[in-house]
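Review form for a predicted model. The reviewer records the input and the model, then writes brief findings.
Reviewer: anonymous (R2)
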Amino acid sequence: MAGSEALKIRRSPVRPQSTGRREQIIGAALTVMISNGVYNATTRRIAEAAGVNVATLHYHFHDKEEIIFSAMEELASRYRNTLSARFTQTQDLHDRIHDLLWFIWGEIEKAPGEQLVLQEMTLYVLRVSHAEHLAAQKEREIKSLYSASLRECRDVGRQDEPRIEELTDFIYACFVGILNQWLATRDEPSLVRTTGNLIEAAQALASRLLPHCRR
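Model under review:
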């Protein structure tokens, strides 16, 4: 996060021996948000789910926006760990696009509740005057995971980074549409076909942007 953005949200200092309690509250917040939605996840409900009183919650977090920010960080951390565990072998870009995009689809299909919460978080923070930057931060965080995976390919060099970012933007934008369709329709056969078409389109774009990676 850029320094200027970091100033826009109040972050509570980490209290002595408080890490476990913060994690407990963040976990409870995600449970409440998945069950009731981000808008209905009041600090009182989150505190009840965490088994603490509201005063204790505010000892660790200034407000709901800080809890949302921390929950975003937690989801991104989980996703990063899953992605790292999945891709341990070096690949060519063409193959990595294929495997990465099927991985993304699998994560969407596996955890629709978390995906819906991430979408709701984006809409929620866009309505809060001092927290709009969190939406952009979430977008950057997710895209950085995808671009990092693509940059690891054996046929991608440092000079290719701008084109990898362009490829990542395309993939991310398309998957936002796929995610919204999945949440609305749960039409798996149609969206599996769409994901396959996206893979072909992304591979074709990669071949155009990075001719030395062409199959």
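Findings: The chain has two domains: 14-61, 65-213.
Further findings: The longest helix spans residues 161-185.
Recommendation: see findings above.
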